[in-house]
Structure formats: C-alpha cells, structure tokens
Amino acid sequence: MIQFIGDSYRKINGHIAQLAKECGRDPDEVTLIAVTKSFPLEHVLPAYDIGCREFGENKVQEALKKIQKAPEDINWHLIGTLQKNKVNKVVGKFSLIHSVDSLELAEKIDVCSEEAGVETKILLQVNTSGEDTKHGLTVRQWRNRFERILSLKNISVEGLMTIAPFTSDSEIVRGCFRKLRNFRDELQDTYGDRANVHHLSMGMTNDYPIAIEEGATILRIGSAIFGERYRSTSEDNKS
Ligand SMILES: *Cc1c(COP(=O)(O)O)cnc(C)c1O
Prior knowledge:
TIM Barrel; disordered C terminus; 239 residues; 16% strand; 9 helices; eight-stranded parallel β-sheet; binds pyridoxal-5'-phosphate; alpha/beta
C-alpha cells in the first residue's frame, strides 16, 4: 500500500529539478522537504530509503515521537505553529524551525537555546496574504522588529517562510511569494553581512511550481508524495 511513496518522491523531485532548470535556476538551490504530518513512521521510511533526508512535521508531540524512532541522519523541520510553552521540548531536535510567528517566540527560542548550549536556526513566518487564519507577522511588523531579532545571539535567522492562500488564482499566490522574496532581498540589502537571511520556504503540493518560479529555496510538500492525509491538518497547524 505504501510502495508508491518512493516513486512519488522521485517523481516530484524530478519535476522540481526540471522546473528549476526551465526558469534558469540551479536545481541544487531548491530543497524538497517531505511533509509527513499525520503519517506514521512506516510511511516516512520509503522516502528515506530512496535518499530523502529532509522531513517536515507540524505538531510538536507527533514529531518528537517520530524523531525518537526514526534514523538519526534525518533533518527534521518544524513547520507548524509553535507554542511558547513547548519551545524547551523542540530546541536541539529540529534542524530548522520554519514557523517563528512573533518576536516573543524568537526571544523564547533564544533563551532556551542558550540554556541548552545550542544555536537554533529559524525562519520568520510572514503573513503575506493578509488572511486572519494565517499565522506570522506582516512584512512591516518584521521590518520593525528585525534589529531586535539580530541581537538575539542564540538563534540564527536563515530566511523567511510563508503559506499562500488555498486558491486556484495563481496570481494571488504569485503575489504572496513575490512579496516574501522582495522582503528577503530588502533585508539582505539593508543588513548585508550582519544577517544570513537567504532561504525562502514557500510552496506546497498545490503551488510549488509557482514558488520555484518566484525563487523558493525550500518546498514543503506532503500530499503529492504521501497521498491524502487521514484527516486534514493543513488548516490546523497547532503544535
Ligand atoms: C501540511 C503543510 C504543508 C504540506 O501541505 P501539502 O498540501 O500536503 O503539500 C506545507 N506547509 C505547512 C506549513 C503545512 O502545514
């Protein structure tokens, strides 16, 4: 029943490489994260077996259980909403936290990282669509807080993340992705070597081709690889 997973992973990876080339990008600039939320570890392993090492989860509890049992050379990405009272559980466990949606959360991650003696890599989640249901701060809010973010010594901001609206109107989606890229470029221009903001985590099953065209460096793809989830968790990103 899960034999198809290796094949779909390979197919999506091939498609990503092809799309990247078509728009003049180096396929190596684009990393595919296999989003395994709601799927048991047995579904993760076929993707691992054919070479996938980047996996994404959106719920802390579920993720920690899988991480415990999974091969150790997997890079785990936390892509769902993180509550401050769970920060101490995730520090040191994830290669990258994509979903930092407030200054206070970044500060908490900084404190817990210092206590644990680690540096935590994060992305700032930007609400590019203006939808109330989406987490993250607006470009303007992050712009005003960025100096403070840079002063936190135990986190490293590697880039930005966004979730586009679920719509068939590709121009709306493209507008969100472009906004994220422009903001990244602005931060690079403004802060130069003081900041290490390069990643754009954007693009899911429904919109990854647009994300590649707009400069995504990280794609978060679940259902196109693993099939329909048992229950939809895409609208419910609570960790
Ligand atoms: C579930 C999820 C994804 C993957 O969604 P698919 O549509 O299954 O590809 C990507 N990003 C986030 C934040 C998610 O919660």
